[in-house]
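haha ok so turns out i had the wrong file open the whole time. this is the CORRECT one, sorry everyone. sequence first:
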Amino acid sequence: MIQVGLTGGIGSGKSTVAEIFKTLGIPIYNSDKEAKKLIQNSPKLRNSIIELLGEESYTNEELNRKFIAKKVFQNEKLLKQLNAIVHPEVFQDYEKWIHTIDKNIPYVIKESALLLDVQKHQAVDHIVLVFTPLLLRIKRIMARDKISHEEVVNRMKNQKSDKEFLEASDYVIVNDELHPLIPQVLEIHKVLTSL
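then structure:
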């Protein structure tokens, strides 16, 4: 079974594109959602995160996202340490998930903004990039997350550049509100199912 990484910067529209692939019957592993579940439910991860960032990381047994975001997006070292705690657990979870998929499925998609950051892109056969112009991404994130322009830029600083994403990708889907997404997804789907 072919493993495809679906990636792109924050606010690029990865989840929207993943939903289109899902309607085509392709199983999707959303790394961000699964990481949030693991962080919330794994005592091992919870203890490691509290040890790294402090007791305020969780309030009333719930992950304190604002506190964590404020700490890690202003401190690259802390972000790397947090990723080093979480990413191996997510990768193990993905490996378990992939073994539950029907082997007759032509390919699966692992959706992850951090696919290139964690060097696990070597574990996928192909990489599909959702590319969106920077200003549109900023506008989307500000509206979606209700955060300031400065906070968005701080988060983006911790991600790969557009150039790095483009160089690592096998296929590119342009999500700029001018190019329809469905035909682009269908074209890539056609190629991937013919491999």
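The radius of gyration is 17 Å.
again sry for the mixup
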